[in-house]
What we know:
This protein is mainly beta. Among the domains are: 10-49 and 194-294, no CATH class; 55-187, Immunoglobulin-like, CATH 2.60.40; 299-394, Immunoglobulin-like, CATH 2.60.40.10; 398-477, Carboxypeptidase-like, regulatory domain (Immunoglobulin-like, Sandwich), CATH 2.60.40.1120; 492-626, Immunoglobulin-like. It contains 12 helices and 69 strands. The chain has an 8-stranded parallel beta barrel with strand order 53-54-56-59-60-61-62-69, surrounded by 7 helices. Strands 63, 64, 65, 66, 67 and 68 form a 6-stranded antiparallel sheet that branches. Strands 1-18-15-22-20 form a 5-stranded mixed sheet, with no helix packed on it. α3 (742-759) packs parallel to α4, α5 runs parallel beside α7 and α11 (1006-1018) packs parallel to α12 (1040-1048). It starts with 37 loop residues before the first strand and ends with a helix.
Amino acid sequence: MKHKPKQLWLVLSATSLALGACNGGSSTNGASNSGSPQSISYATIAQNATPQASSCIGVSAQSITASQWNVGGKVTIKNNCSSNQTLDGTNLIMSSNSSNLTKAFSLYNLAQSNDLIVPKSGWVEHWVSSSATTSVVKNSTSGYNDLSITLNTADKSAYLIPGGSTNVEFGYNPAGVNPGTITFKSGGDVPDIPGTIQLSLDTKQLSSVCTSTTICNIPVHLTGQNGTFDQVIDTITNAKSGKVLSYTFKDLKSGTYGFSVNSNDLPSKVQFVASSSFALASGATVSESAVFKTVTITTGNVKYSLVKPSTFTTEQSSAAVQLTATTGSTIYSGTNSFTGANFNNVEKGSYTLSTLYGLADALSGKYANPIKKTGVKVTAESTIDLGALSYPTRNSSATVTVKVTGLDSSDSATVKLTDNLNGVSYLYNQINLKTGSTALKLLESDNIVLNITTSDKYKPITAVNYSVVKNGVITLNFESANQPLPPESGAYYSYAITKDQYGNPVLGFNIYGISSAIKKVTLSSNVAPKAGGFPSCFGIAAGQYTIASSDDSAKQQYQTDFTPAGGATFNLNNPSCGNFLYQDSKNYAFVMRSQLETSGTTLPDILFPSVSGVTVELSNGQKVSLPEKREIISNVDPGHGKVLQGYYASWGIYNGMNFGPDKIPYTRFNTLNYAFTYFKPDTGEVYAGDYNADGTALPMIAQEIRKYPYMKVYLSTGGWTNFKNGSPVKADTLFDTLTSSDARISKFATTLVAAMTKLGFQGVNVDWEWWASTSPDQFSNDQAKRMIKLYTAVRQALDAQGVKDGKHYDFDIAVGAGKDKIMAPERVYPGYWNQVYALVDHIGLMSYDMHGGWDVNQPAYFQAPWKMETGNPYAATGYDISSALASYQSYISASPLSKFQIGVPAYGRALQVASLNNGGLLQTGIADGVGQRTVETSLWDYKCIINAVVCTQSGQRTHSLTLVDQNSTGANKTLWDKYSKDNSYEPWGYGVAGGQSNVFMTYDDTYSVTRKTQEAKALGLGGVMLWEIDGDANDDAHSLAKAISDELAK
Length: 1050
């Protein structure tokens, strides 16, 4: 998302400009080998300036008569400043108590006065064109229409002397409606006067680099104007090295500028040092200096491969490897798939290369200890090749017999071993056991954990912890989970987590397949249902049965008995019991702490209730344990082998959005990002920021995804805005504090992964979108390293948990689509994106928010274009999806970019423009757009854009937009064919939105997401990501997610 500049209301200040602008000093240098000065004009280059407000011109008096057919009179305007002030571009704002002001206005003349100086012609008279110099604007305070009138003089030279005044005479026809009291105010922006930048460029040190053996060809860029201006001011060749070169750049609009050189264009051992950001005021001259410096490279590379012993199966497909400095202060980490691998950009010094785990086969007794290669000497500008590294082997030292009983002859149990022998761990081959005895060849004194799984025919066996002794015995007794009930068979239970009428999470369960009377039902769960409230249980009203919970600490669960009062029995004609509030005093269901950041109030912990069993006691005293039957709603992967990812926003329950977890369309996505959990930057602890939202949504989602076997859910943290001490802040400031300490980074990674694991989610998502307080040209090597360090810690925490659980957990990140932000880390840390790509499983490209309501005084354009049409004024920025992907591909060795998902928005962005010519497209923005909801500007849900009734139904603002899309006809079809059909793919709307006129609305629809999905498939990308799912349409015909799924299926 772009930064939004502060919005200025037009009537606050008058447009004016001091004619005598200050000149900066000229740049000189005394070097004898200086190059010839160069002067370059940019008068013919398209530019954008940020307007500056002025309050010099004010309305001092007015004499007006008004009727329903005529309004006329004069207004006295005065120069309140101590310098001459031009009148050209000055705005007068006419206000009334009517909504009928239009553009039918005539300005007769600027009256002659001794204070009004017209140097060229000596007098001035100008008739104002209704279309070019007036516009109707909605007054946000009164709600009435105002009329903005721009003053222009015939020869563009008239000005008022300090303290001087003159009269403006005018006439206006109100078309039969008496506008009542007419008042005038002044307002507007200072017209921009071209400025000058002088540059002294020192290339002396290049003379030792740009030699007969090294041909230099280094383009130097002048960039600025909010990323819309990028010009190569000179290309430094061998002939231009060894000098101090002087430049003068003329006719530049005001704004922020910087000088830069792409890192790929720099010779080895050369840095370009220049001011990354400096301001050029209107009409000013500034002097800057830049220098090429030779640097000493202090990093080298380490090359190696791992030899996997032939006795181990392909289950161990990769190894976690780290390179640790002898001092222990520097660690480089990676994952090796037993092929050639490298550690790049390693600071010179002495290191130890080691694998984090050894390899083991408990059946054969073969063990391979972790590799530890000491004395790895890294020297600058060289690669040390360690060759093929072999695991040192050892044999088992103890035999342990595992005795299995209770399994049918055709069944087996799967055992995955984890261990810790004095700090050393091994990755074990998976073992399949049948009824009988199996000898495991283990290491004496090792502490092992047996994680056991089998079919649903048997009750689950909790993990077995065992300290290895010679000739030891481990007994695994499997019990049938499906005991037939006479005369019934096939009885089962199910459970669900929902919410009550107050939004609280509640637990309920059902029993099916029993017609016999039941004396008691016992629920085994990690939470204890609360007595009280009004839930009925199997047809018996609240108060007519008792609830009693006891703690089974060995199994870390509660046993809760539900017993009818007075010796009655339950009759399962009504199979449901609950729903109940619940509690957990033992932290069996604990996920994470919760704190409402907006008040700092500590709230209940986030819990994930789960039911592990239900036992019924029949009227004859027989007790029978029931199996769980999970409802499977769909087995059809909507991504059809690709990632189809959607963000669920936890705040969707507020501000009239009414989108809770019960409305998630699970059949339209195969990956869900839960946004957002928070973290404490001073400690690293991950926590829930809003119990009201997270306390219900997290457990509901965790339980619901069991019905969709293809579904993955990632616990997401970060975002553009987060909270600290009760106040909203940009998340990058929190990440900045977090990554200043290794201990905080470690705490962040471990608590994030722990919460993910307890919820049963399949991965995590880190949305460190950008250092929002840093411009791309100020990005530093330290910032890049800290991002790598955080990502590495998360990867290691996920892998460590995966070893324990015998599965792989995904690491997903979100990255920007701005070309300048993609290039920034590579400029200061070459190889950055290759390292990031190796650490993560998925990358969500935030290929939206490229334009929007912040583009005031700039051309209105699409927020998520696939590519730009020829001649687009933003072409130099590279702000489109195809350019972003090409930029990433230029830095990432892997091809295709199969880990990338392109992002599509389920929302639109509004910008008020000066004119609706061209459907508002490429017209100048004059104000941020009004939002669909009062809590945010410019944003509109996609479902509301295509159907304004949706806005009305939800009690929010509505619109009357003309949509330009693939179904348009006439002039709008011509516009569609020119800009969108085969370029941006984007539809747009223009007209009135939220009561605001002249609105340009950029959004995506089913056509655009289909075309983008086609492009993603052609490029071999990993899939598509949608932000955020509550904005999508409900019906299949208009749903963005359904359109993406349909295209992925082809």
